[in-house]
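Protocol step 4 of 6: structure prediction from sequence.
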Amino acid sequence: MSAAPEFSLILTLADAAQGRSVAVEANAEARDRIAQRLALIAVDRFAVTAEIRAVAGGIGAKGAVDASIVQPCAATGLPVPATLSEPFDLRFLRDIDAPVDADEEIEISSEDCDLLPLEGDRIDLGEAAVQTLSLALDPFPRHPDADRVLAEKGVLSEEAAGPFAALAKLRGTPKA
């Protein structure tokens, strides 16, 4: 059994059938849990806005995740603040995993990239929003002072430690 989601926002087929606008901000406790899950120093703001609608075979959700976060620098661990606004257009469908004949070709269009399974008659838009944020994060955030901090600790830059630097040392300085 999986743990409870950090930020749950359950919507049903009935919500989608009527069309619904959603605008929700995560509270401090949910933001702390999201930060823990995504290995962030902090999540200072996490908001979801969306239009929910019925689509053939399920629920459509189009909107954005807006977040103010602090990531650890990939090189130094120093805090790197960032503000993200990530749009999404998701479709939660019943028959997403319908069996396909072995001889049948499968074409995946850009629209198919944001398909998720519809479980029962409900979706967790909050969980989808956390996943959207995780995909939008900079995988290698770098603090503006990272090079200086690393140099102070004796870590060589790529240029100083690379193969061309070693060749330059072997060659020595040209004689005048």
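Step 5 (inspection) to follow. The first strand starts at residue 10 and ends at 12.
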